[in-house]
Design a protein that fits this description.
Largest sheet of chain B: 2 strands, antiparallel
Helix content of chain B: 25-40%
Radius of gyration of chain B: 19 Å
Number of strands of chain A: 16
Strand order of the largest sheet of chain A: 13-12-16-14-15
Largest sheet of chain A: 5 strands, mixed
Shape of chain B: elongated
Structural class of chain B: alpha+beta
Radius of gyration of chain A: 28 Å
Strand content of chain A: 15-25%
Oligomer: heterodimer
Largest interface: A-B, 37 and 42 residues
Shape of chain A: globular
Distance between the termini of chain A: 81 Å
Number of strands of chain B: 4
Strand content of chain B: 5-15%
Number of helices of chain A: 15
Chain lengths: ~500, ~160
């Protein structure tokens, strides 16, 4: 059986560079000295640590629990000692975030796995297990998987799509996972299909992944259709793949469920299988290390492994004018710090010559190539002009927030304009304006209340005992008190050193 | 350098008003509604640097035609441009902006006189008579109105992160 194919418009054929890393079997790196777990994934709220520094933890032990619906549990990927809970650099950018740091003891002692769910477990039970196991979307967005299952329980899911369309160049972690763990992926897909009672289930890969296709097909049946789609970037984008396989579109700012679709990455399906059947939380993932390294390939990396560890194992000297990109060349972000950890959404580390990514940009010549390739059919050129001019309202009117930041426009731009950077900056500018407006609204509300309170004090000065901060104290008496207190402070100041205006008084006075 | 920067800013502001069609300068609007619209563009620091008691009194003065649109230092260029756009007038050079600030009470020196409580236009200071006062930093607009009434000069403004 083959997959349905509808046109989705836009997209671009890019050199794939997949053979660099997908020819050898995935490897298990030696244990790193420490594991680092950021409490916050980039979607949702931070998890709450349930261990403290000094605690011994075992492989599979829960380190932090979700306090809200959109959050995730974290588990130790090997045994060790909790060294610290504090601020450490995390990817991307120059930010730090609260992390749990585990010093690995190398003993690899483990907690007992949970019992497998029974074959007739319902959607609620599966959802609870996914929360417990900390399963979140491993394709990039990191959306908690149980939230998607919950959506599927309350609404009709016509189509469940398991996304193996690894469309970014260089990245092959899903490809290797599908070749090596097709059993788990297809089984996970069946559990997900059962959980949300989906009408049909598709597993999609790209046309140049014949080994992965064959591996998956050997486990598929009537209930799960495996097929391939053309390797046009960004065919693996959520909305693009939904359009291609169902012909339906996700509304602007909407969710796939509004088109009757739930989508999970293949690695997520495998994590679901591990959680439900093997009773293990999400503790490791496949990570591609590729580009200018001596031994490119895929690693079965423990979550929390510092990026530098995987780079060293891949034979990267760390010299020259190279930069490490987390993610692929189209959507990835350059790392400024190599001690950042592998997280549930880290798919690739790409080492590139810096010169390749910093070409001088030239003025726009209005060729229209960016419009042709945009997979969301945005007016990319006009968006760029507005973003550059700072006209954020106009950019929003042109559906700036429908941009999926795939980078196809910047890839084809003959003037090498970093278009997506402009779009990201404009989005950040709009978000900042919205935050400022919220603060202003709160200030206005507080100012109005303040003015009302003062007016009330003035009209009824004798009776407004509770409204006046000075309470029942007589005005004259209060003034006398203040004068006395001021004298005391003066005396105190005179007794100490001469007052230093920069530190606001005497800190040693208490 | 500085004059060029200023020119660039003014130029940018001018560009704004040309690129976007100016709305009807509020002829048909009720006065209160126009005051609301102007007030909505002001940063609500309630600092009084414009010479009025707060943002809304300034907005009222602008509606009456008493005050120019470039009297708001915390709003800076953006606010001047937005006001010019709203009112359909030419943008003016913006007043110098100061970095965002937040008030800090030296708790060892505070005598608990409560004078700063009423001075704070957004009620961001908590305290009680003869007890230590403190500024709720998240609510402080950095207006500095709490500084003059303090009899022991124990409040200072510090540059805040954002």
């Amino acid at each position: 059986m083959t997959l349905p194919q509808h046109a989705w418009g836009g997209g671009v054929r890019v050199p794939r560079h997949k053979n660099l890393s997908n020819t050898g079997a995935s490897r298990v790196p030696p244990l790193p000295a420490r594991l680092i777990y950021p409490l916050r994934s980039h979607i949702g709220t931070a998890a709450r640590p349930i261990i403290k520094p000094g605690d011994r933890v075992l492989r599979g032990q829960c380190l932090a629990q979700p306090d809200t619906y959109v959050s995730q549990a974290l588990h130790a990927a090997t045994s060790g000692v909790v060294r610290d809970i504090g601020d450490f650099p995390v990817a991307p950018g120059d930010i730090t975030a609260t992390c749990i740091v585990i010093e690995v003891d190398g003993e690899g002692r483990s907690v007992d796995p949970w019992p497998p769910l029974s074959a007739d477990a319902d959607g609620d039970a599966i959802q609870r297990r996914l929360v417990e196991a900390g399963v979140i979307g491993m394709g990039g967005a990191g959306f908690p998987s149980h939230v998607k299952v919950r959506e599927g329980l309350t609404r009709t899911v016509q189509t469940l799509i398991i996304n193996g369309v690894e469309c970014e160049p260089y990245i092959t972690c899903d490809d290797r996972l599908m070749r090596e763990h097709a059993t788990g992926i297809v089984a996970g897909a069946r559990w997900l299909k059962r959980a949300v009672n989906a009408g049909e289930c598709f597993i999609a890969v790209e046309e140049d992944m014949p080994e992965a296709l064959a591996a998956l097909q050997s486990h598929a049946g009537e209930d799960v259709t495996v097929g391939s789609v053309p390797a046009i970037y960004p065919a693996g984008g959520e909305k693009q793949l939904i359009k291609m396989l169902t012909g339906r579109e996700v509304p602007s700012k909407g969710l796939p469920i509004q088109a009757g679709v739930l989508m999970h990455n293949v690695a997520t399906a495998q994590a679901v299988y591990q959680a439900v059947v093997e009773g293990r939380p999400l503790m490791s993932r496949y990570v591609t290390v590729t580009g200018s390294v001596q031994q490119p390939g895929n690693w079965q990396a423990l979550l929390g492994t510092p990026v530098s560890h995987l780079l060293q194992q891949s034979g990267w000297g760390g010299y020259g004018k190279q930069q490490v990109i987390m993610g692929g060349p189209m959507m990835g972000m350059a790392l400024s710090h190599l001690e950042v950890p592998v997280t549930k959404v880290t798919n690739c580390l790409l080492v590139q010559e810096a010169a390749r990514v910093s070409m001088m940009s030239m003025p726009c010549i209005r060729c229209g190539e960016c419009l042709r390739v945009c997979p969301v059919q945005l007016n990319a050129r006009a968006l760029y002009e507005y973003a550059r001019a700072g006209d954020l309202d106009a950019a929003q009117d042109l559906h700036l927030f429908d941009c999926i930041e795939c980078g196809a426009c910047a890839y084809v731009c003959p003037s090498h304009i970093p278009l997506v950077s402009y779009y990201r900056q404009a989005k950040a500018g709009i978000a900042a304006t919205e935050r400022r407006q919220q603060t202003a609204a709160e200030n206005r509300r507080r100012y109005e209340r303040h003015e009302q309170r003062l007016a009330a004090d003035q009209t009824a000065p004798e009776t407004a005992e509770s409204a006046s901060p000075a309470g029942t104290m007589d005005k004259e008496a209060m003034r006398a008190e203040i004068t006395a207190a001021v004298e005391r402070v003066r005396a105190k100041r005179a007794a100490n050193e001469p007052p230093d205006p920069t530190n606001g008084g005497e800190s040693g006075a208490a | 350098m500085l004059p060029w920067l200023l020119l660039a800013i003014v130029g940018l502001a001018a560009g704004f008003s040309v690129a976007r069609p100016a709305r009807d300068p509020g002829k048909g609007l009720a006065l209160a509604e126009e005051t609301d619209r102007i007030d909505a563009l002001l940063p609500q620091t309630q600092c009084g640097l414009c010479g009025y008691r707060g943002c809304r009194p300034y907005a009222e003065a602008v509606v009456r035609g008493e005050a120019a649109i470039n009297r708001c230092p915390p709003g800076g260029t953006e606010t001047v441009a937005a006001l010019a756009d709203l009112l359909g007038v030419e943008p003016m050079p913006a007043p110098a902006m100061s970095p965002p600030r937040v008030a800090l009470i030296d708790e060892a020196t505070c005598i608990g006189c409560t004078l700063c409580l009423d001075a704070c236009p957004v009620d961001a200071i908590i305290g009680a008579p003869k007890l230590m006062h403190t500024v709720i930093a998240a609510l402080c607009t950095g207006c500095g109105l709490c500084l003059p009434p303090c009899p022991v000069d124990c409040i200072q403004l510090r540059t805040s992160g954002g």
